[in-house]
Amino acid sequence: MSADQASAHRNPIPRARRTPLPPWILMYHSVALTAQDPYQITVSPHRLDQQLRWLARSGLTGVSVRELLRARAAGRGSGLVGLTFDDGYADFVEHALPLLRRHDFGATLFVLPGRLGKDNAWDPLGPRKPLLTAEGIRAAARAGVEIGSHGLQHENLPAGDDTVRKQETAYSRQLLRDITGRAPEGFCYPYGAVDERSALAVRRAGYSYACAIDPGTLTGPYALPRAYIGQNDGRLRLQLKRMLHPLRRRPLGEEPQLPTVGREASR
């Protein structure tokens, strides 16, 4: 061995650490049959079944965000896609949950403990959609669905003051712990709106991660990007969104370190 080879052997050149690509997380809202959908937040049960079937045929397994992040932290996140349902509509238990069970998929349900049993009053154009009650949230949790917070009253965090941010993050987490017996690990920003103050409030409240939509430079464990999924997303559109996701979203700067557990059952 030459002197140069010996030196290289003693002092190997460190490999560049690869920045992890953003996880593919899909964003759903309501699952129901409706003729009126001005905000395009509703997919029919039939369309959701087709979309979940496409994921399975593409070699992907739908899981909660909590499970997805744990798997990625352990180096085994390949083939997993996060499924999220925002707002906590009552139709989740009626329509979405049976389909998740059929495909053996998990999911995260982001709910509003300050609007139990009420409706989506923040959507002025309607239609009015009932939200889950406390018992409905517990039913989803018993079925293996991860319960996360979508805030207390669906307030825009960047537009609010410190009191609003604390209520939407810390107080909603406390209420959900009282409802389910477990403090949620995940938070979802209402309207997808996030800034540095909002992300800091979420972190201080004790959450392990937070979901946004297009967080820009804030992309990271407290501003995870997601892909909107709607009624018009068939096989070709889903394939295109999957291909474009790593190109349109910034890489994550770091992965949250979460305890490793076995796969959560969706049933």
How would you describe this protein?
Strands 1, 4, 5, 6, 7 and 10 form a 6-stranded parallel β-sheet that branches. Strands 2-3 form a two-stranded parallel ribbon. Strands 8-9 form a two-stranded parallel ribbon. Helix 4 links the parallel strand 5 and strand 6. 35% of the residues lie in helices and 12% in strands. It is an alpha/beta fold. The chain contains 8 helices and 10 strands. The chain is globular. Residues 1-17 and 255-267 have low confidence and may be disordered. Helix 6 runs parallel beside helix 7. The chain has helices at residues 3-10, 45-57, 65-73, 91-103, 134-142, 162-180, 196-204, 235-248, and strands at residues 25-28, 30-31, 42-43, 61-63, 80-85, 108-111, 146-149, 186-188, 209-211, 227-228. The N and C termini lie far apart (60 Å).
Task: Please outline the helices and strands.
Elements: H1 3-10, E1 25-28, E2 30-31, E3 42-43, H2 45-57, E4 61-63, H3 65-73, E5 80-85, H4 91-103, E6 108-111, H5 134-142, E7 146-149, H6 162-180, E8 186-188, H7 196-204, E9 209-211, E10 227-228, H8 235-248
Parallel strand pairs: 1-5, 1-10, 2-3, 4-5, 5-6, 6-7, 8-9
